[in-house]
Fold this sequence. Notes:
The protein has 3 helices and 6 strands. It is elongated and about 125 Å long. It has helices at about 5-20, 20-115, 115-135, and strands at about 140, 155-160, 170-175, 180, 185, 190-195. The chain has a domain at about 140-195: Nucleotide Exchange Factor Grpe, Chain A, domain 2, CATH 2.30.22.
Amino acid sequence: MRKMSKKEFKAKSREEDQNIPESQEQDMSSNGKATDAEGVEDDKTKDEKAELMEEVQKEKENFLRLFAEFENYKKRTSRERIELFSTANRELMTALLPVLDDFERGLNEIEKASDGPLLEGMKLIYNKFKNTLTQKGLKEVEVKSGDTFDAEIHEAISQVPAPDKKLKGKIIDVVEKGYMLGDSIIRYPKVVMGS
Length: 195
């Protein structure tokens, strides 16, 4: 059904008024003004309703944007917190690696001195220290003499002539152990390569 304009509405009302008998015309004369006023008020309320609906739609869009921004904020801060903990853990592990190396060197020297009770006590402390680091995610990078050199995993500190043709391009000696924290290498194993 097509919406009538005010002029059409008034014209139709006049036609209807002309077709009404006089007795009814008198009753309607007092109500006619009210009908015109109601039509105008209906148009105003429809306009107000449309404006309010438009305003509600804008507010919904703003709410959705704010909600999405907040969700992104929560994800970002959660990710940053995890990165902060892993970075702090990484820095601590990197600082403890020289202590672990010194411990191993000390154990080797005590073994040479063949002091049984001292060696046993030091091994207990060393194992406890190493197990604690392992529980926190530290893993030793497995490297042994004769392995193929991989520049992404190993750090070559020197090249020496290979004692055997089979050792050309391979690892001859491991100078310093390498370690991983999780899936990333925090210290590359330092190796001597055969040329």
